[in-house]
Specification:
The protein is of the alpha+beta class and about 120 residues long. It has five helices and five strands, in the order ααββββααβα.
């Protein structure tokens, strides 16, 4: 992965990693308590994907595959579509219906993965 493509989503997931250390995020981990795998492709779902694990049991974000068994739900996105959904610019249900987001695993777990989980963009 040393020469992996730089994704726009990398910065957002890095912010999320910091966000999950806050007290507000501890409430999220208590409330949700699930593990998500997010596959983000630069241009086409299924090709050259970068995998992230958003662990809302432990409250951490890591790059790479999940070591603790199977994640509760796995999402696949194109980079730009992930940003739109994560920032609330695209409704997750519409993204799913349009094929901009693919889901494997528990649909009830997937429905708990909402834009509220993500840190709000800081004002400049």
């Amino acid at each position: 992965m040393a020469n992996s493509t730089q994704l726009k989503s990398d910065a957002l997931l890095e912010q999320m990693k910091q966000h999950l250390t806050t007290d507000a995020a501890k409430e999220l981990t208590k409330k949700i308590g699930l593990v998500y795998q997010i596959n983000i492709a630069p241009e086409k779902i299924g090709f050259n994907e970068v995998t992230y694990i958003v662990d809302l049991k432990k409250g951490e974000v890591t790059k790479g595959t999940y070591e603790g068994g199977k994640p509760d739900a796995t999402f696949s996105f194109k980079d730009e579509d992930f940003l739109k959904v994560a920032t609330g610019k695209m409704n997750p249900q519409i993204a799913f219906m349009r094929g901009a987001m693919k889901i494997k695993g528990s649909l009830s777990a997937a429905q708990k993965f909402t834009p509220e989980i993500f840190p709000k963009p800081s004002k400049m």
